[in-house]
Specification:
about 260 residues; six-stranded mixed sheet; three-stranded mixed sheet; 12 helices; alpha/beta
Length: about 260
């Protein structure tokens, strides 16, 4: 089986590496399953102080593999569009397990961080982006919403107004704007990504590990993420049954502008 996600431990650091560089680390079902396994491995590994998540090749990740999205029938059966609550729950569960690691998680972003990849990054505690990185949640241009925690966690991070602008338009923003909006913590030269993450981890290691883990639980507990995820799942289950979703996905695959019907 192809290793679409690699892991390695260096002292107190556990790295999770997206390893589908020929597809700009586009997320398919198998990659997401392997990512979930890597998160569980990090959770079981003693002595860690931080988890770093990065991507091989020219991009962190271009987001979900849309061809895989259209192939959900193979995974969930021919009536998969009537099972969207279950599908959304499965996808959300992976990033919720990532978010609920008591270890600090740091996403190292470069190239592109779009759609589900940005939702993955938003589930991390800290984001460091290389100069020129493009970030965005383009789901509305496919007739969907960000339903794997992206809507909920973006609002928590930047507030409703900024979240609405980014989600309504589906636009991409660069790393500098993402830093100004508070989406990323630092912007550095691409060759300095790992060094910055290691520097930050070294600083975290000076604090008591139990205190860091408890602080993370308290801070994350201040927001009603579970209710937000439920609302995302409900909304997406409605949208996947629309003609606009099918039109958006087909237009994307055919590289043409969609003809929205609002039905």
């Amino acid at each position: 089986m192809t290793e679409l996600v690699l892991t390695q431990q260096r002292d107190h650091i556990f790295e999770i590496i997206l390893n589908r560089p020929d597809k700009r680390n586009a997320i398919n079902m198998e990659l997401f399953r392997q990512f979930d396994t890597a998160v569980s491995q990090a959770n079981r590994t003693p002595g860690l102080r931080a988890v770093l998540i990065r991507g091989e090749g020219k991009a962190f990740s271009a987001g979900i593999d849309v061809s895989n999205l259209l192939g959900l029938a193979g995974e969930y059966g021919p009536h998969w569009q009537q099972r969207m609550r279950r599908i959304t729950d499965d996808f959300q569960g992976v990033l919720t397990r990532l978010e609920r690691l008591e270890l600090p998680t740091i996403a190292l972003l470069h190239g592109y961080c779009l759609g589900m990849a940005m939702e993955l990054a938003l589930a991390c505690d800290i984001r460091i982006a290389a100069e020129g990185t493009k970030l965005g949640l383009p789901e509305s241009r496919l007739g969907m919403i960000p339903d794997v925690g992206g809507t909920t966690r973006l609002v928590r991070l930047v507030g409703p107004a900024r979240a609405k602008e980014l989600i309504f338009t589906g636009r991409q923003i660069d790393a500098a704007q993402a830093e100004a909006w508070g989406i990323v913590n630092y912007v550095v030269a691409e060759e300095g990504l790992l060094a910055k993450a290691e520097e930050l981890t070294a600083e975290i290691c000076q604090a008591a590990p139990l205190a860091v883990g408890m602080a993370k639980r308290v801070i994350d507990g201040l927001s009603d993420v579970d209710r937000g995820l439920q609302l995302e799942g409900w909304a997406q289950s409605q949208l996947f049954s629309t003609a606009d979703f099918l039109e958006g996905a087909q237009a994307f695959m055919m590289k043409r502008p969609p003809a929205w019907q609002a039905k």
